[in-house]
Amino acid sequence: MTPRRGPALAALAAAALFCAGPARALSIEPPELELDPYYTALSVTVPFSSATMAAQVDRGEWQTYLDATWRALIPRFLLLEASVNPLPLAGAAIRSSSEGFYHRARVTPSFNLIESVTSGFEEPYAFAVFLGGITDYSAGRKSRGHRRKGYVGYLASYGNYHLMEGLFVPDNWLETEAKIKGDLVTDARKMSWSFRFGAKTHHNAEVTDTAYLGLRRDRIDYQKVPLSFLLSTGIDYRIDFRQGDLKPISQFVLVEKNFPYTTRNKKTYTFSLGVGYQWQSPDKYRGGLALKRTRPESQILFRPNLKF
Predict the structure, then answer these.
(1) Element (H, E) at 132
(2) What percent of the chain has pLDDT over 90?
(3) DSSP string of 2-44, one letter each residue
(4) Global pTM value
(5) What is the rounded CA–CA span in Å between residue 241 and residue 1?
(6) Half-sphere exposure of residue 122, counting CA atoms within 13 Å on the CB side?
(7) 104-134, pLDDT tens digit by residue?
(8) Shortest CA distance to 131 belongs to which of 18, 235, 22, 38?
(9) How far is CA 166 from the centre of its chain?
(10) Residue 72, exposed/middle/buried by CB under 10 A (0-12, 13-18, 19+)?
(11) Cross-strand bridge partners of residue 268
């Protein structure tokens, strides 16, 4: 593939607008900002029509997932997003400013304190185009904030840098995937989920092209229900395969326990504590990048987090 991938995303966005039809007036929704220490994004949604589908919100967790999967993948909207990964960037900044301090943070061969808190994303930032369908979970009910939608469709993301153990590696990469994603927030609970599969290609020949499967599920119960202590948890899992022979080359798993807290002025914050495990095969990198690797194949993860 050629390194000129930025224009490819622009072409995809233009094609999506063309599909909406020249006679149809498009209404751009107000921008939405998602804040998170690991993934912060600013997005703009362009509906192709007013045919947003409503959905019941008082369904069980698994029924909510099933309701999202059966909806047709006919594109109903275009979403443009710019994202940045603050803590992974902070890890790179620490290594850039003090290489010695970065390596002294290795407590054991499989536990570097800085990597444990900041790893998990292979890119410092990205630009994305999403085409798909939308489900409105508000349905006239009281909800918290703007997170009340589910998405099913196709995503293309682009960036020009890769992160390897806190090092910036020049690399024009392109990631394409099919995914089901959603956020549902009511007075009773907050749920977010993402199920996806796709492929990521790199212009830098020293970074291996991959295909992958991923799932993320996170739930916070604001009101106690049976088994809420077990249900109010999160899990994030991803496995990557080398393109060509589908040999596994990396795995990532993180399990979190959520602890919601309501202040006197009725604002709710959630502290989460996560532990996990990350494995990378030596086949992940080649050439000069393989020689720069200092981390062992296995890495223990420890992630305290504050969710808004």
Answers:
(1) strand 125-136
(2) 49
(3) -S--HHHHHHHHHHHHHHT-TTSPP-PPPPEEE--SS-EEEEE
(4) 0.81
(5) 19
(6) 27
(7) 999 988 889 999 999 889 999 999 999 988 7
(8) 18
(9) 19
(10) exposed
(11) 262
